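Form 7-S
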Amino acid sequence: MAIHPYLDNTGRTDVWSGGSRMIPITTPKGIFNVWTKRMGNNPTLKVLILHGGPGMTCEYLEVFDSFFPGAGIEYYHYDQLGSARSDQPNEPSLWEIDRFVEEVEQVRVALGLDASNFVVLGQSWGGVLAIEYALKYQQNLKGIVISNMMSDIPAYNEYAKNVLMPEMDQEKLARVKDLEAAGDTDSEEYEELLMDIHYQYHILRRPPEEWPDCVLRGMSRVNKDIYVPLQGPSELGASGKLLEWSRTADLPTITVPTLVIGGEYDSMDPRYLEHMASLMPKGESLTCPEGSHLAMYDDQEYYFNGLLPFLERLK
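Output:
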């Protein structure tokens, strides 16, 4: 009997569950499950979205649901281990970059993605993973999107210190620093100060009451047992295990088509992001003139008018 061309005949179990699937991941501390959800069906273009944080959830990236289906892109939402819909083991030793990279590779294998169709899109911390994955497993990739992530954390911290912080209310910034020094970063005051002087200008350029529900959900479900040890207590620079991370010198070895996206008001230096693209043989840059760290929301038209044609060329 002939299979209708619009039906999925791959035998994948996710067709029975609305696209959702738990994938077992082998780690040094045992086997755990991570949540994925497939959207669309395109044999030549499959985008695995790596969310930020670390320890956030892919909920804040639901904006792709408004653009990828109409463009004929198959894509996968995915909560990394420790994030909301995936297992959350109390195993601090698992929260290392190399271990997360191996997790991405196991997810790729389970989903049946390969160099004929596989594009990884990493946003923020997900961009760290995308870079690290490409440096180890480039042979599995058709293309890469690095969205809003510098390849050098010391340079990120310098940008925050020398460019962003001087423009902030210095009294409020001093209070943020006092709370960090006291270890009082779980307080409501700390979060309100960050929103007041930083987040609504450089993370998402909207008053907090106008932030999309999916972004607020994603932020409310951050696993701080992962986020704080790696990133530090906030998006105002990094101070955790990522403090000395730098891969800029290695970028020329990434030879698959790569798009680097930033925003003019990003917490990441937009000029550095453009420089990153210039280092890769097939690198391209997209700087959203009105965008911040979540430029897919606050400069949405420009973001997707740049991203979708790049992905179209990879089909």
